[in-house]
Design a protein that fits this description.
469 residues, 60s Ribosomal Protein L30, Chain: A, 3-stranded mixed beta sheet
Length: 469
């Protein structure tokens, strides 16, 4: 669908028309283009969602997740695409080049939004649809700028050019604020990943270890979450504390570090094992024995299971299988929770456990002025309970929020009630909780203006990682 859209560019005409309508201050053209854009967007979303529903399960790929965290470079691509389209219209050279420019900026995030709808993943949908809206407006304003440059604008006086320029600049500046934040976060995460890689590799090489996986994330409170999997000749009890101290010194921030050590023996031990290459000729059994339950599970995980696994432990005596998801997994916790239940239904006589990589816990949202748990919130809490159990954590921080003036003077109390009801559910599930109320949050007024008041009608659950003294 995306490749075809690059050649046909169904949204190009309406968006170019919107740009000319802005340049000429033509309300009727703006309405016509708006109707065409809405119809095109709905059509693209429906087609994308139907394709995803009809296809086998597709976990979020890096290409999909790249469209959920737009940054300033995406806005620059959209501006350049709009300039190409505007220039092509002025020169009457509409063709595949302009179509590719428009579709490259619009169709991938729109198709990703359709995937988010089909998968009921609002994080994917909201991030990709925001990228689409940003690109669409940037293209429209760029086309308008090109139209005015070539004398097609309805400018009766220099003052009209001034206010149109200022209005377009203000809209693009507002769109740039969250994009710049995302870009800064991506740069910070990349630098932290590089520093963590250097620190851990130096320590591991000195002790005969080998790093297999590494993941770096940021918690909402600014702490750095680092998870690593190391292949070791023997278990090193002091490695987590030693590496955590080195990471804190290198990153200059509080670090929560989790190290999984996989004992594989020394290089000499591995060399003593018989080599398949050295003994390539092996007689095939005439009648191979039937596969055991353990072999069936291994075969299913290797050939059918759609999620990336970094490590597995299958115990045929206890009939249990524990699967550590790879850091490359880009989906959410709800998907893993459902995947574990599907595995359990396929192998009912076994205990199937999926261990997710470190990931932010789902946020519990509330209706305006309410502090009651609806079915959606309860599903999120069950996912939180499952993730915390798989991570082996017993303590969490529960933070309650409310939108500004949501319940007048009782808004702070509403935030407290939200934290209390979530904490009570978690306590009943066997966790220790520490409740906090943040009302108003720093910069909440500006953030509500950008994200809406509903963004603060929530309770956030933060894992409390044990700190060794």
């Amino acid at each position: 669908m995306i490749i075809g859209a690059m050649l046909i560019a169904p949204l190009m005409g309406p968006i170019v028309l919107l740009g000319f309508a802005i340049a000429e201050t033509d309300v009727l053209r703006a309405i016509r283009s708006g109707k065409a854009i809405v119809a095109g967007v709905l059509g693209a979303l429906v087609i994308s969602a139907v394709i995803v529903k009809l296809s086998p399960y597709i976990s979020p790929t890096p290409e999909i997740m790249a469209r959920t965290n737009p940054n300033l470079f995406d806005l620059l691509v959209a501006v350049c695409s709009g300039m190409v389209a505007g220039y092509a219209v002025m020169r009457q050279q509409i063709g595949a080049v302009a179509g590719v420019a428009i579709a490259t900026a619009l169709m991938p995030p729109l198709a990703t939004a359709g995937y988010g709808l089909a998968a009921a993943d609002m994080q994917v949908f909201s991030g990709s649809f925001f990228l689409f809206l940003t690109n669409m407006l940037a293209i429209a304003f760029s086309v308008a700028g090109m139209a005015i440059w070539y004398g097609f604008g309805n400018l009766q006086a220099p003052r009209e050019l001034l206010w149109k320029t200022l209005a377009a600049g203000a809209v693009l500046a507002l769109l740039s604020v969250p994009l710049v934040d995302t870009l800064n976060e991506s740069v910070s995460k990349s630098l932290a990943l590089k520093r963590a890689t250097d620190v851990l590799r130096e320590d591991m090489v000195a002790r005969g270890m080998r790093m297999d996986k590494l993941q770096v994330n940021y918690a909402d409170n600014g702490n750095v979450l680092v998870g690593a999997v190391a292949l070791v000749p023997k278990y090193d009890e002091g490695a987590p504390d030693r590496m955590q101290a080195a990471l804190r010194q290198a990153l200059g921030k509080p670090v929560h570090f989790q190290l999984d050590q996989v004992v594989i023996g020394s290089a000499e031990q591995a060399a003593q094992k018989p080599s398949v290459i050295a003994n390539p000729v092996t007689p095939l059994p005439v009648q191979p024995p039937p596969l055991t339950e353990t072999q069936l599970i291994e075969q299913y995980l290797r050939q059918v299971f759609p999620l990336p696994i970094s490590m597995s432990e299958i115990d045929s005596v206890r009939k249990s299988a524990t699967l550590q998801l790879a850091d490359s997994y880009a989906g959410n916790l709800q998907t893993l929770y459902n995947a574990e239940r599907d595995l359990q239904s396929k192998f009912p006589g076994w205990e199937m456990r999926l261990v997710p990589p470190l990931r932010g816990l789902p946020v519990v949202n509330f209706d305006s002025g309410e502090a009651e748990l609806d079915p959606v919130s309860l599903d999120k809490l069950r996912t939180v309970q499952w993730a915390l159990q798989r991570w082996g954590l017993k303590r969490v921080d529960v933070v309650g929020y409310a939108s500004l003036g949501e319940k007048g003077r009782a808004s702070a109390g509403l935030a407290s009630k939200r934290a209390e009801i979530v904490a009570a559910w978690l306590v009943e599930a066997g966790f220790e909780t520490e409740k906090t109320v943040i009302y108003p949050a720093p910069g909440q007024k500006d953030e509500e203006r950008e994200r809406g008041q509903a963004a603060f009608r929530r309770t956030q659950i933060l894992p409390n990682f044990p700190v060794d003294h």
